[in-house]
C-alpha cells in the first residue's frame, strides 16, 4: 500500500494511528519478502528450463537437416515410383497387344475350322455341331477378319457365310418335314438351333406357324365333339389355344425378345376361330332367343 493511502487510512498524528500504519507496512514487507523468497527458490528451476530450451533449439537445427534429407529421399522415391509406373503401363500395353494378337490368331484358326466343321457336320446330319460352329463364328471379333484381309489374304468369311446359309436351308427343310410329320421332339430340337445361327426371328416364325396349325386342328376337334352347351366346346378350344401360347412362351426363351412374333401369329388363328364358332352357334335357331344375339348384332 502506498504512503499516501496509509496517511489517508490512519491518523499518524496519534500513537495508535502511527502504530497501525507501522504494522501495515511490516505486513506488506513480510509478503514482499515471501514473494522474493519464492522467486529466488525457483531460479534454479528456471535456469534449468532455459538451458533445456537452449539445447532443444540447438537440436532443432539437426532435426531440420534430417527432415530435409528425408524430404529429398521421398522426392527421389516418388520419381522412381513414377518411372516404375510408366514402365508397368508400357508392359501392360505390350501384354494387351500380345493377348489381342493371340486372340485374333485363334479366331482365324477357328474360322477355318468352323467353315470345314459346318460342312462336315451337315454331311453327317449333326446339325447341333454345325450350329455350334456357326455360333462360334458369329461371336468372333470382326477385327480378326479385317486383319487377315489387310495382309492380302482372301476373305475367310465367304466360305463361312456359304456354309451358314447351307445350314440354314437344311434346318428350314428339316423343320418343315418334322412339322408335317408332327414330330414334336424334332421340332423343338431344330427350333433351338435357329438362334445359334443368328436366325432367331425366322425360327420363331416357323414355330409360330406350326403351333398355329396345331392349335387350329385342336380347336376344331374340341368344338366338333357333342356338347350340352355352347360354353363347353369353346372352353376346350380356348384351353387348346392357351396350351399353344404356353408352349410358345417356353420355347421362345431360347430366342429372347421374339415372343411377341409367335403371339402375333397365334392370335389371328384363335380369334378368327372363336368368332366363327360364336357366329355359327348364334345363327342356330336354338341360340337366336338367347342374349348372345345382342352381343354380335346378328340378324335372324
Can I get a quick summary?
This protein has 300 residues and is mostly helical.
Key descriptive features of the protein:
300 residues, mainly alpha, 3 domains, disordered C terminus, Conserved oligomeric Golgi complex subunit 4 N-terminal domain-containing protein, COG4, COG4_N
What does it look like?
There is one protein chain. The protein has 300 residues and is mainly alpha-helical. It folds into 3 domains: 3-68, no CATH class; 69-186, no CATH class; 199-300, no CATH class. The protein is built from 12 helices and no strands. The longest helix has 81 residues, at 43-123. The relative contact order is 0.04. Residues 55-145 form the Conserved oligomeric Golgi complex subunit 4 N-terminal domain. This is Conserved oligomeric Golgi complex subunit 4 N-terminal domain-containing protein.
